[in-house]
Structures are given as C-alpha cells and as structure tokens.
Amino acid sequence: MSQGILLFAHNNGLINYGDMTSYCAEHILANMDPRPICLVTDSETRKTVDRKLFNQIIEVEPVTKETNLRNYRDGDNDGKKAIYHNNTRARAFELSPFSETLVLDTDYLVFDNSLDRVWGSRNDLMMNKSIASVQAETPPKVFRLDDVCIPMFWATAFFFRKTDKARKFFKIVGYVAEKFDYYGLIYNYRTAIYRNDHAFSVANHVASGYIESHSFARPLPNPHLLTSWDTDEILELNYEGMIVKTKRGGKWFPVRVSNNVHCMNKRSLLKHING
Fold it and tell me: What is the pTM of this model?
C-alpha cells in the first residue's frame, strides 16, 4: 500500500502558486511523518517550484475557463483580475500515484501532525464541512451552498483511498465540474466562478443518496477546518506557527496559531515567503 500527499499548483499571473507550493511542502516535511509528496502542475509553473521537495511531478495543462476570471481583492492587487486554474483537482483520483492520498491546498499551512491520523483509515473519503476561524471566540460554522440548500464541504484538505466507491465519487465530481452551470440551477449556487468546494459538495450529496445525514464523506481527524480569512494580516510566520492580526468586535487583535490552518490572505503569505 502506498501513502502520499498530493498538491496542485498553477500560476495565474498575479499569484505565484509555485512559491506557495514549495513553502507548503516544506511545512509538510517539517511537521508530518515522512511521506512522498507529488505535485500536479503545468510546464510554466513547474519552473517556479523547488523540485527537490517533491518525489514526483506530474505535468497537466489546466483547462482554461474565462468564467474563472475574477477579482483578486487582496491589498496590493485590489481590483486586478486573473484566471484561476483550479479545475484539475477534480482529477485527483486519476492523477494520484498513491493508494491512500491526502490532498492539500497550497495555502494550507501544516503546523502539527494531526493529519497523520488519516493513514490506514477505513473511510473512502474524508473531508470537512465545519469551518472554524482563528478567532477562538467564534464558534465553528457550517456554510451552505444556499440558505436552504446542502452543506458545503471544503476541498481545501481531503483524504481518499483508491476504492471503487471513491472512484465513483470522483466520477461525479468530474461530471459536476463539466456541467457546473446546470448543477448551479439545481443547487442554487453562483456559477460565475468554478469552485471545487461546490463540485465536491454536490458530488457528496449524490454519493450520500441525497440524504444529508448519511454523508459519504467523513470528517478529517480535526473535524473543523481552521481558517485565517483574507482580511487577516500575517505578522510572524515560521514552521512552528504564525501570528496574525485579525478583526474582532471592530478592533484588530494579534492571534497566535499553532495548528494546521488555511491561510486565505495569499498576498500576506507570499510576502512572508519571499521576504
């Protein structure tokens, strides 16, 4: 049985996902048990990554969709637009060289070893729907694709095994990604931008027999996806954790984070990576 971590990276003219991917891999190697890391990228982005960090690099040219042209509202780049090449994640089952795979966003920072508990799991798919803010006083929350629709699962971090059930799940993901506008009419989500979170959520609903309480996806070892929002500014960052400035009650406060976290302020993250 092979176990490994799968990352996806495609630069888009505004965001250097190559640098971010290399930094993500360094954190994985520093804080998790040794596992091979495989990178799925394109030929141009490959030039910007530190290749020695990856055991395998797979080149895939992403399908460019103009509908994924969106504003990058983040400090210095406010108002500028870029096309986000995020649709290759739907091919994770096909592309992964591992029988057990952990997929992480490249802006997901690994500060602890809690995700090592996924290895050897009997679950076909593990993915969180509950999200928690770095503001400890804010309780975890479950978002929905629409106020009266299904819960949203986050494709930021997920684990799967190469089983027939998982294969069928990713077949549904691919079909939803292809017919994204059509499923948007059914599930009432916005279709201007393709989101893996939406495609994976719909696929999970179908794989669960359309019964919300019978979710096919089981939660990851930490059932809440810890998130630092795109308005949070990183003040300090190293392999042990980070300090972010976050807004609470109309005031800004520094918060120390020492657990795995999805860092949504990519500009601030890249500033520290390249600073």
Answer: 0.92
